[in-house]
Write a structure and sequence with these properties.
By secondary structure, the protein is of the alpha+beta class. Among the domains are: 135 residues, no CATH class; 68 residues, no CATH class; 89 residues, no CATH class. A hairpin with a 2-residue loop joins strand 7 and strand 8. The relative contact order is 0.06. The C terminus is likely disordered.
Length: 563
């Protein structure tokens, strides 16, 4: 106790940073200030401060620059583990008194009610052995490897040079990296420039749109780095649909084409996954590719022709991986479904500022004529043969869960339900109505037509009063009538003023599609800005139209033509 008292009376070593924390601008600031931590040296007890001061001074005094860099890197391994953030954990793997090294919570400033103060040799003995082994085994061959440590938005010195890119970008506002860097950076007297940091941070006035713009800069740089025809993998984790859509819109706007989205269970949960009920429990993995240069040049030269649209579908299907089979069950692939193929085709045209040459009914009819369909998925002729062989070996095909939230998902559900292969086949209104209500989870702003109206506009009845899926020729006629009705409703929205509180999302989509085809970008912007912001952020298709129309709005006349 006398020794501790003597240590407490010592002055804080000059090597110790004492700069003030920007509490007001830090997400975790409200947790630190009540614990008395407002400056960097407040993170450490008196005895720890003296030990770290000696280590830092000795490391800085090394004359050889490379050895000094190694020793400073080694010193950095002590900063978090010797701070008040290091929690005491008495039981580990069934033993009493487990190791107390690095028991801080990652990704957050959290001071536990029980902390563990460790000595420099306790925390460094094992680390030094591992660092020595790691650096001692490095055999660098000049020209064999390139490691770039810079912002992801830096333009490459040579374009089209990377074979593959894996990126694990910031997940919106899940982790505040610049804030967390502050503890280590203060020792070096540097500070991360958080202005271009791609996160959502209200304290720094960064909203979802700023995050999307910053991610677009990074993905655009990736697009320049990557070779045509090669792949980018994006690991993503966020429970908010708006952030998920912002990532996809940034990815698409940069030029990539999304080919596959899957879940990744990393087994070990993060702090937020454990403590927050609303947090997503698994990561999403997006696989996207950069189109072949020859195809993209041909597509642009054709200027939004029918051939260009079908060429895109051909090369997109060729890029898509084959459906996987696990334990005799084929996993249905979303990206091979008709509606998603149409969405990808539309997005590719909009990204290149071209009018979409096909309406949805025309596209679906042409898709059935040009490509092979099996189990609700589409394949090229070569892929179809391979899939049928696999299908014969499988016990069944897994059906994707589909909930009815709006008109678009309602029509998808009804097509599946009335189809003889995927559902119960032709049904009367009395048969289908209870099943429909069971799956109905209508969104807040959606003006969903009555079930009978949806059936009447999109399906046909047989002699037994059963509704069934019409053949392609009749379907095109029905879709044309429905499109006319949707545009009529969109005109009503266009004439109105003020916020739209209840509306048909399908009417908005139809109106945006028509306005884009007519290069009437102002109409898209005007109506979009009357929609609830949360809906605009969470609907990927509406966000895509709005984002691209905004970029072109300044070139348009101010008169609003009626559709």
């Amino acid at each position: 106790m006398k020794l501790l008292e003597r240590i407490e009376e010592l002055d804080t070593p000059e090597a110790i940073p004492t700069v003030e924390l920007p509490i007001a601008q830090m997400y975790h600031g409200s947790r630190l200030a009540p614990k008395g931590v407002t400056r960097i040296h407040h993170f450490f007890l008196p005895r720890t401060l003296q030990g770290l001061g000696v280590l830092w001074t000795k490391a800085q005094a090394i004359s050889d620059p490379r050895l000094r860099a190694f020793m400073l890197f080694t010193f950095e391994q002590t900063i978090w583990g010797m701070s008040l953030l290091n929690r005491y954990q008495p039981i580990q793997f069934g033993r009493v008194g487990g190791s107390q090294v690095n028991r801080y919570l990652a990704g957050v400033y959290y001071i536990s009610s029980l902390i563990s103060e460790v000595s420099p040799w306790y925390i460094l003995t094992g680390k030094v052995k591992r660092l020595t082994a790691a650096f001692g085994q490095m055999h660098y061959q000049p020209g064999a490897t390139v490691i770039a440590t810079q912002s992801a938005s830096v333009v490459p010195p040579v374009e089209n040079c990377a074979d593959y890119i894996f990126t694990d970008p910031p997940f919106g506002e899940n982790i505040y990296y610049a804030d967390l860097n502050y503890l280590v950076e203060s020792w070096h007297n540097v500070r991360t420039n958080s202005a271009p940091e791609a996160i959502i941070d209200q304290a720094k006035h960064k909203d979802l749109y700023a995050y999307q713009a910053l991610m677009w800069q990074a993905f655009s740089s990736y697009y320049r780095w990557l070779k045509p025809g090669h792949w980018l993998t994006v690991e993503f984790h966020n429970s908010h649909n708006a952030v998920w859509n912002a990532i996809q819109e940034a990815l698409s706007s940069a030029g990539f084409v999304v080919a596959d989205v899957r879940t990744l269970d990393k087994q070990q949960s993060s702090y937020r996954q454990v403590t927050a009920d609303s947090a997503a429990k698994q990561d999403l993995v997006i696989s996207a590719y950069k189109p072949l240069a020859a195809f993209e040049q041909r597509f642009i030269a054709e200027g939004g022709s029918l051939n260009g649209a079908w060429d895109f579908i051909q090369q997109h299907l060729e890029q898509l991986p084959a459906p996987t089979m696990r334990a005799g069950v084929i996993e249905k692939q979303d990206e091979r479904q008709a509606y998603l193929l149409y969405d990808r085709m539309v997005a590719f045209h909009i990204r290149h500022s071209l009018a979409v040459p096909l309406s949805a009914p025309e596209f679906y009819q042409g898709l059935r004529q040009r490509f092979s369909e099996a189990d609700g998925m589409y394949f090229t002729p070569a892929q179809a043969g391979d899939y049928h062989k696999r299908r014969q070996q499988a016990q069944r095909v897994e059906q994707l869960a589909l909930f009815v939230t709006d008109e678009k998902s309602a029509l998808q559900w009804m097509h599946r339900e009335l189809d003889t292969e995927t559902g119960h086949g032709p049904q009367t209104y009395q048969d289908i109505q209870p099943r429909f209500l069971r799956e109905l989870h209508q969104t807040k702003y959606e003006k969903l037509p009555e079930l009978l109206e949806l059936l009447d506009q999109n399906f046909l009845k047989d002699a037994a009063d059963r509704w069934y899926v019409p053949d392609p020729e009749r379907q095109a006629d029905l879709d044309a009538l429905r499109q006319k009705s949707l545009l009529h409703e969109f005109n009503d929205y266009l004439r109105g003023k003020g916020r739209l509180k209840v509306f048909r999302s399908e009417a908005i989509r139809a109106g945006f599609s028509y306005a884009w085809r007519e290069r009437d970008y102002e109409t898209i912007v005007k109506v979009a800005e009357r929609l609830p912001e949360s809906l605009l952020q969470e609907d990927q298709q509406l966000l895509m139209y709005y984002h691209n129309a905004t970029l072109r709005f300044s070139d348009q006349p101010k008169q609003l033509p009626m559709i």
